[in-house]
Amino acid sequence: MSNKLKKRRLAYYITPHGFGHAVRSIEVIRHLLSQGPEVEIDVVSTIPEFLLHQNLTQPLPLRAKQLDIGLVQQDSIRFDLIATLEALESLHLNQDALVSEEIGYLKNKRIQAVVCDIPFLPFVAAAHANIPAIGISNFTWDWIYEAYISSDSRWSVLVDWIRKCYQKCDLFLQLPMHGDCSVFPKIQDVPLVTRKAQREREKTRKILNLDLDQKVYLVSFGFLDLEETAQNRVENINHAVFLFKHPLSFRFSNGICLDDLPLSYADVVGAVDGVITKPGYGIVSDCLAHGTPIIYTDRGFFPEYDILVQEMGKHLTTVYLSSADLYAGKWKSAIEELERQPRMVASLPGNGAEVCAETILRYLNWL
Length: 367
Fold this sequence. Notes:
Elements: E1 8-14, H1 20-35, E2 39-44, H2 49-55, E3 62-63, H3 81-93, H4 95-108, E4 113-117, H5 121-129, E5 133-137, H6 141-146, H7 155-166, E6 171-174, E7 187-189, H8 201-208, E8 215-220, H9 228-235, E9 240-244, E10 255-257, H10 265-271, E11 274-277, H11 281-290, E12 294-296, H12 304-315, E13 318-320, H13 323-328, H14 332-340, H15 352-363
Parallel strand pairs: 1-2, 1-4, 2-3, 4-5, 5-6, 6-7, 8-9, 8-11, 9-10, 11-12, 12-13
């Protein structure tokens, strides 16, 4: 029987940190399924299930299992480093049981390969199960956590442990806008993974019932709780309309909830005048794919932040909005500043999902 007729089973592990890792992983998964119709994929993560439903046309098994911590978030911007450290220490103490469980899962489900973005323990389990493991990311958790050692030496042991896990990776696909990923033995650079609008700007605006000259901004956060005073300030920016999607919920009259509209997130990003967000790989990539300006806020000390801000500034029109002003609803000055600037045209290749999928399948000899 030829390779193309055999069923191939792959486990795709996704960190629950934010939505960006999930969104780009889903794009890679879509291309894996289209390029390798014999491939069956199990997603292993504690990401919200609605992300799979919204971005995939076919249901996939989702096994709710957390094998990394990321950062313990208080909301989309603020995180708790002490709680993160304690959770990671607990994971470290339980690593043997967790790895043993994953080995059993990989063998019982007859998984033939593992892809990670970018939990570290699955690489250890895959090595013990004698199956190939491929990583995809623009950063690694050892690089992120290393930045916190100077303020708390307890991070050091954990960083060393994570590095040993990552060294079990057989191939790492390094995305643009990356940090130090040199922990991996074998690295291959790949293009930006992005989502692309399926509708033209005019058609999206028509579905939104908005004129082409109406100023429209997408508010893009996983969680943002604005008090009534802040929402009143946003409502008083009466020349603009603000779009948002679950899990966000706002009450200002110039807001439109996208939940019941037949629009993809990429459709919306491609049709707005700007996105109000924190710099994260997923939303920055979407904006780069469509040349959409960004009003960005700070997010605490997170090493990826500076890299993303630098790359955004090279290719997109951007304006900074402090987190204090964000929570206070004082967005008007940043919006007016953005509207005064000419719109830059981004020109980065965004076919990373297709390239990653093909690279994975060829590496596994599944094409």
